[in-house]
Amino acid sequence: MEGGRIRQWLNLLVCALLLLIAEASYVPITYLQSAVAKGAVCLDGSPPAYHFDKGSGKGINSWLVAFEGGGWCNNVTTCLSRKTNRLGSSKQMAKQIAFSGIMSNRQMFNPDFYYWNRVKVRYCDGSSFTGDVEEVNPVTKLHFRGARIFAAVMEDLLAKGMKNARNAIISGCSAGGLTSVLHCDRFGALLPIGARVKCLSDAGYFINARDVTGAYHIQQYFGQVVATHGSARNLPQSCTSRLSPKLCFFPQYLASHITTPIFFVNAAYDSWQIKNILAPGVADPDGHWHSCKLDINNCSPDQLDLMQGFRTEFLRALTVLGNSSYKGMFIDSCYAHCQTEMQETWLRSDSPELEKTTIAKAVADWFYERRTFHQIDCPYPCNPTCHNRVFEPQDGHQGKNVTSKGTSDASARKLNFPKLTTNKARWIELVCINGGINGLLLTLGLMRKQEKANPIGLNNFVALYRLQ
């Protein structure tokens, strides 16, 4: 009896590890050296970078351009701290990153966009690609040139074939999701007349809300970002002509004026916003919210009441979108942040659903105009399909899901999984069908016979285990 149970657990482990390998593809980095002469550089002056996985077949003229997230820097001190890591220097970026979720090149994991040209633009300016300050301080040597990076990358991609696009999406997660909002119409204007061009913002609908002390901490913070980077001139004029530039960093004040179709994927209890807008450290010096922010299951009834109030504020900020078919939304009640580039939340058997619809299907149906989608979830904890995030105690920004070890920023992790050919990946899919370890032995044998290739070795499994 006990032996059978152990065998079941081993079967599950094998399936999980192999599916983890099969779900992602790895794409090398491209440094845009030509951008340096234009002053389009990272905070440290290094060239901008992106990862490009070329489309195929009928997707050769379809483009998905996703912008990486990673917060912002709001003054010289916080921007200097980024100069020595990947969020401020392309010298520190991984040479290849995983593409999964909406970026996946596998039909079973991404049925509507897998064959498109897919581009991940790396984030190294700290302003959601809005800054442009000509002067460079000789002491700090900081370059605030996010808007120039956006322009240089777009110019390069247009030259590589995007000028012929028939379908195109600008997307992003977190600060990248805000990028897709702020640059939505600008992106649309670059593409050919007649092309189907739309925008997708994942966890980018940051709201201007009070913190637990009643202060507008996030408004002050965004104001500092705009001032430090000289962002005002690069924010949508439809907003800056009416409001202070610091308010135009909030989607709620400009979304109704965006003319390019746009879709919002967001958690009503966005974990980043709960941690940094509702209960930032400055508003909670004694750490009463610390345990709650790490895991929503640890929240007290009073804290949950305040979080329900935040949800109400969030939904009120969404009302500016109206019911236009041009503006879609998938607003779940998960404690999460970024859901389109994680396979488990984008499209898998246990992915979050609204009206029995996954995020992948909702976005695709809306993009291809198969149906409109304006769904808002019932209040927490009503949705059993949610993947609620659980953060490590020492982890102020990243996190993991209770159902897996995935993170919202998987692209930043230096993964060293074995490279799989298409045939190998297909054989791997048979493992769970054929029954765990027995299936593994059968599949590896078939792989060896079929391709005369070495099977995936024990060392690789150990490496995968250590990574997790």
From TrEMBL:
<dbReference type="Pfam" id="PF03283">
    <property type="entry name" value="PAE"/>
</dbReference>
<dbReference type="InterPro" id="IPR004963">
    <property type="entry name" value="PAE/NOTUM"/>
</dbReference>
<dbReference type="GO" id="GO:0052793">
    <property type="term" value="F:pectin acetylesterase activity"/>
</dbReference>
<keyword id="KW-0134">Cell wall</keyword>
<comment type="function">
    <text>Hydrolyzes acetyl esters in homogalacturonan regions of pectin. In type I primary cell wall, galacturonic acid residues of pectin can be acetylated at the O-2 and O-3 positions. Decreasing the degree of acetylation of pectin gels in vitro alters their physical properties.</text>
</comment>
<comment type="similarity">
    <text>Belongs to the pectinacetylesterase family.</text>
</comment>
<keyword id="KW-0964">Secreted</keyword>
<feature type="signal peptide">
    <location>
        <begin position="1"/>
        <end position="24"/>
    </location>
</feature>
<keyword id="KW-0961">Cell wall biogenesis/degradation</keyword>
<keyword id="KW-0732">Signal</keyword>
<keyword id="KW-0378">Hydrolase</keyword>
<dbReference type="GO" id="GO:0071555">
    <property type="term" value="P:cell wall organization"/>
</dbReference>
<protein>
    <recommendedName>
        <fullName>Pectin acetylesterase</fullName>
        <ecNumber>3.1.1.-</ecNumber>
    </recommendedName>
</protein>
<dbReference type="GO" id="GO:0009505">
    <property type="term" value="C:plant-type cell wall"/>
</dbReference>
